[in-house]
Design goal:
Elements lengths: L14 H9 L4 H11 L2 E2 H8 L4 H13 L3 E6 L5 E6 L1 H4 L2 H14 L4
Antiparallel strand pairs: 1-3, 2-3
Keywords: DNA-binding, Transcription, Transcription regulation
InterPro entries: HTH_HxlR (IPR002577), WH-like_DNA-bd_sf (IPR036388), WH_DNA-bd_sf (IPR036390)
Organism: Sporofaciens musculi
Length: 112
Amino acid sequence: MNEHCISKECLATTGFSYTLSLINGKYKMTILYTLMEFGVVRFNEMKKYIGGISFKTLSLSLKELEADQLVHREEYPQIPPKVEYSLTERGKSLIPILDGMCEWGDKNRIIK
């Protein structure tokens, strides 16, 4: 039997900590969920769907998710400018986790 001793471990070195560092933030999971549900989404569509998020926060969160290779940004050279966002293959690998969260929420929702 392999015993873990907390005094010999460090949370920062775990896969959990790494994953959390990528998705941590008020809206990152919501953005990932939106892209999972709708595939390719434009900036204003996402802002409208999410609701209370500011333009600045959405923009910053998308840039961070893009830098972490979870989200792909496609810019089309036209007037007016058109930009679409979608999940990368790396981002799509989070779908089972997002699906699990959705299933848990459906099963454990407390209706008031």
